[in-house]
Design a protein that fits this description.
This protein is an alpha/beta fold and 236 residues long. The chain is built from eight helices and seven strands. 39% of the residues lie in helices and 16% in strands. Strands 3-2-1-4-5-7-6 form a seven-stranded mixed beta sheet, sandwiched between helices. The termini are far apart.
Length: 236
């Protein structure tokens, strides 16, 4: 005959399980644990392996979505990877023959062959960009800039200003963004439940900045030309 567990033991197990679950939620809410993982160089080979499929998929979204951005002949194309993060987009584009300038506000780079440039998050380093990434005098701007899942980390108020800065140095900018429902889950994954800038927009909201192209039910591209005009007002 199986002896039933006393009610006190069951209650104790429920309390302990609840406390463990609460601790996990608090860790996800307040601790940027992904920064710790990325800062551990011994884990970089594992991270790079995990990113193999993702980096190819995202770059294919961009280049297949806009075939004119693909390399033609011997001419190099110069690309700004804005908010490069782990630099997997920079690495994939570099592998395909693009000349990439990776830029971000903190160093999370896991690819030793990619040089990540840091800036203050307010003003783009125009002088440095002009000196280091120009191979020919006629190249006034980057052929295009990419920002993959970056702009929902920037407040809506600051987004127009940042986009205009990018327009001044890029012929066009390609954003990869996600719907607000997906973005909410990503805040948990990134440990940003409370600290997130809450700059996510729907595809309809992004359409006032540029042309939107849906990729999946939750992912979409935004193409913004250097000549596109938009206002700072959210009601416009």
């Amino acid at each position: 005959m199986v002896q039933k567990k006393p009610k006190a033991v069951i209650v104790f197990i429920i309390i302990i399980s609840s406390l463990l679950l609460l601790s996990l939620v608090l860790i996800l809410a307040f601790a940027p644990w992904n920064d710790w993982i990325v800062s551990n160089k011994y884990l970089h080979p594992i991270i790079r392996t995990c990113l193999q499929t993702r980096k190819k998929k995202l770059v294919n979204w961009i280049l297949n979505g806009y075939p004119e951005l693909q390399l033609q002949g011997d001419r190099k194309k110069y690309v700004l990877d804005f908010g490069a993060g782990l630099c997997y987009i920079s690495h994939e584009l570099n592998t395909r023959g693009y000349d990439v300038y990776a830029l971000d506000i903190k160093n999370l780079n896991v690819y030793p062959d990619i040089k990540l440039h840091l800036y203050d998050g307010q003003s783009l380093p125009y002088a440095e960009l002009g000196i280091e990434n120009r191979r020919h005098p006629q190249d006034v701007k980057f052929d295009f800039g990419v920002a993959c899942y970056v702009f929902h980390h920037i407040s809506k108020k600051d987004q127009p200003h940042i986009l205009r800065q990018l327009q001044s140095i890029c012929n066009e900018i390609i954003l990869i963004e996600e719907t607000p429902s997906r973005e909410a889950w990503c805040r948990v994954i990134n440990g940003e439940i409370l600290s997130h800038a809450r700059g996510h927009r729907t595809p309809e909201e992004w359409s006032r900045f540029g042309k939107v192209k849906k990729i999946t039910s939750e992912d979409f591209l935004v193409r913004i030309q250097s000549t596109d005009k938009f206002s700072d007002s959210e009601s416009s």
